[in-house]
Amino acid sequence: MLRCVPDASPVHLLLQWFDPRADLLPWRATRDRYAVLVAETQLQATPVRRVVPYFREWMRRWPAASDLAAADVGDVLAAWHGLGYPRRARRLHEAARWISRHGWPDDDRLTDLPGVGRYTADAIRCFADEADVIPRDTNVNRVLARRFPGGWPGTPPGEEWAAGQALMDLGRLWCTARDPACERGCPLRPGCPAADAGTVREVTPPRRRQGRYEGSMRQRRGVMMGALARDGRIALDRDPEAGRSLVDDGLAGVRGQWLVRAGADGG
Ligand code: SF4
């Protein structure tokens, strides 16, 4: 969507470039705080394309915080399976219970919610409330460091939501850590300090790759969580170490010689 551009400042170039209809991500169609909380929790550490069907199914099944709060934690964890890092689901469930019991905290107390850190709190303010707050995840911080080294110059009134989304898209798709598209059409290339100085990669070096997934504890836990989601239980002696770590994290319970879904152990 082309907007009226009163000047060629990088903020206006960014807003002119951003087209919310170009990428119909379902969480962009809502300004509901709970939906934004769900999306942002799922998007932590999981790629956008993988999250889309999970988000749709989640919102169909638990469309409000009160619905999620009333859900069985074992069902919640089973629905999460495939997104990875299931502690996020546990914390999201706790947050829904908190909201259901107390209502939403004050704007400056959103981090009181279980699992909600500074970034997620700011995302709720920007993407649900359309407040003048820039949520800063790794991608946005990279764009700011490279293109706005003097700091974010401010958002034009009424463009708060679009500015936050545009920065996310630019960092995710163009100003990436490993392959920044400076000379391949980046809309913020004119006057970009890092590109002009040839210091793009020095400004924010690529993150280290994660260790191998095959054979890791993460994979072993994922196997156990998959069996719990599918069958409801798995023999504890299949992988006692992984099973114990899931129990310690509140992601599973023990009944006799079985690892069972959280909440199904009678505890
Ligand atoms: S020109 Fe390069 S460094 Fe500057 S914002 Fe674009 S991709 Fe990032």
Question: Which terms would index this structure?
Answer:
3-stranded antiparallel sheet, binds iron/sulfur cluster, about 270 residues, single chain, mainly alpha
Give an overview of the whole structure.
This protein has 267 residues and is mainly alpha-helical. The chain folds into two domains: 10-203, Orthogonal Bundle (Endonuclease III, domain 1); 217-261, no CATH class. The protein is 49% helix and 4% strand. The protein has 13 helices and three strands; from the N terminus they run ααααααααααααβαββ. The chain has a three-stranded antiparallel β-sheet. Helix 1 (10-17) packs across helix 9, helix 2 (33-43) packs antiparallel against helix 6 and helix 8 (138-147) crosses helix 9 (160-174). The longest helix is centred in the middle third of the chain and has 16 residues, at 87-102. It is globular and about 65 Å long. Mean pLDDT is 91; it is low at 1-6. It binds iron/sulfur cluster. Residues 143, 146-147, 174-175, 180-182, 186, 188-189, 192, 194-195, 200 line the site of iron/sulfur cluster.
Specify the CATH architecture of the largest domain.
Answer: Orthogonal Bundle
Per DSSP, the total helix count is 13
Q: What's the order of the H and E elements?
A: HHHHHHHHHHHHEHEE
Oligomer: single chain
CATH C-level class of the largest domain: Mainly Alpha
Walk me through the topology.
Elements (H helix, E strand, L loop, with lengths): L9 H8 L15 H11 L4 H14 L3 H6 L2 H8 L6 H16 L15 H11 L9 H10 L12 H15 L18 H5 L2 H4 L13 H15 L1 E3 L4 H9 L3 E4 L2 E4 L6
Helix pairs in contact: 1-9, 2-3, 2-6, 2-7, 5-12, 7-9, 8-9, 12-13
This protein binds iron/sulfur cluster (SF4).
Iron/sulfur cluster binds next to helix 8 and helix 10.
